[in-house]
Amino acid sequence: MNYLREKGLVLIVSFLAVGFLFSLSSCKEKLNPPADLVLLNGNIITVNDANPKAEAVAVMGSRIIKVGRNEEVRRFIGKGTKVIDLAGKTVVPGLIDAHLHFMSYGNTKRMLDLVGTESKEAILKMVAEKVKTTPPNKWIRGRGWDQNDWPKRERKFPNRYDLDRVAPKNPVLLTRIDGHAAWVNSVVIKMAGVTRNTPDPPGGKILRDEKGEPTGVFVDSAMGLVERLVPPLTYEDKKENALIAMRECLAFGLTSAHDPGIGLEEIRAYKELIDSGRFDFRIYAMITGFSKAAEHYLKIGPEVGYGGNRLTVRSFKLFADGALGSRGALFFKPYNDDPGNCGLLTFDPEKTYDLMVKALRAGFQVCTHAIGMKGNAITLDLYERAFKTVKVKDPRFRIEHAQIVRAEDIPRFAKWGIIASMQPTHATSDMYWAEKRVGPDRLRYAYAWRSFLDAGVIVAGGSDAPVESPNPLWGIYAAVTRKDHKGWPPGGWHPEQCVSRMEALKMFTINAAYAAFEEKIKGSIEKGKLADFTILDKDIMSVPEDELWKVKALATIVGGKVVYKAPDARF
């Protein structure tokens, strides 16, 4: 009897123990808080080398709480969870553009869009049409002309007399595609008081005819002689431009951008839009060097993560030289197609060194525009000198563009941890005429993404919009193929500099995040990071190479919120 009683007690205790463990297991399952958003059945490319692929993601608030298989993530579905069945669609980390003139891009959408025009006459026709609806003396603005795209007989800089024919009474200012030259008519030249006796300003050039008269084209800092006459954008204009750019960029799958060369009013506009809940985007701001904004921020220090990581201000933008297309990029030897011209040095090296030292001491990054070999070399010299003066563990200085460099300068990037912030579509835009500009020898390390990566340099990808389209898939395609959208040239232009698809994706995700000191909060799909995702209509790792540029964003998610959805998205 006692034996039976003891055995019964043991059985009861065992059943209770099993029940307790089962109950504890159930409680553990129930302890998983319900997610706000769950993505299921996806081809998720995480850009996390430790866990490169996944099927599903769970999000709570603005952060990722789980990445894994469908069955693992389903446990986070509860009452109120928004569930998106991806049906096999590809998801990548929210795409980042490391060099996008955000408000300027928005502003170009309100001007004459000259990008892709194939002749001077096509532009003049557009201006003539605009004159019909513009009162006399009112400004006509446009951006995007490129004389290299015109017929051979026209492939030279235009002049003011062409514009005078179609717009004799309106001031007209048309900015070149690279933003480094302005084409104006005689009305503007007269307003500016520019004559044959007006000297070229430091770092700029007034193009002149054989008699010394200004032709109507102003390069680099000389643009200021005419641009100062244009009525300035209002504060409300800037806010509207930011919203226009945001909508455009979200439709391309971008979630973040690094905005180079802005001031206090632009920062205020971003903050106001963020505070009002109207800004579903993230901006990493580069303050214009030698400005009131730079002086202000040197006093107060960096501003990181404003408005839920919607805005960070911790870098300065400087200019070492001009652009290749307008022959302002600085070289050691003259241009092949412009003997006697080596380009333009657009800053004072000593003053620039002083600002770099101040930036280091105040905790700021420096991002310097440098395109030509000499422009890059001088910038590297100044960086090295500043690093030796102020010891900072991880300054992450950047060179924006780094387009054409000397072989011996690439290891200098790696030695000092200098980031190459590059725009792949520049190569596929410039490849038609770049050799004529600088010759084949100097092109060996032009747009040299492969050489930089092989040397251990972080390469961040961008567009330089409005110079190029901000579409990041175009940038990824250019980095992988070095071809235009027609597949030219076969095999790619200098194919030795091509990168893999994953390397290209990293340029526009984790590398761009690293270039902004943000790799711990975005740039890959990992637990704890911001829930920024781009959902694509095709798998960029398997789609035929020549179709990469056609891949489109089906949806864009910022901080766990679907902020863009394509009309043909089926979820």
Number of helices: 20
Class derived from helix and strand content: alpha/beta
Shape: globular
CATH class of the domain at 320-499: Alpha Beta
**Spatial gap, N to C terminus:** 67 Å
Rg result: 27 Å
What is the CATH architecture assignment of the domain at 320-499?
A: Alpha-Beta Barrel
- The fold-level CATH name of the domain at 320-499 is TIM Barrel
Strand order of the largest sheet: 8-15-16-18-19-20-21-22
What features would you highlight for this structure?
disordered N terminus, alpha/beta, Diaminopimelate Epimerase, Chain A, domain 1, 34% helix, eight-stranded parallel beta sheet, 20 helices, TIM Barrel, six-stranded mixed beta sheet, globular, 25 strands, 571 residues
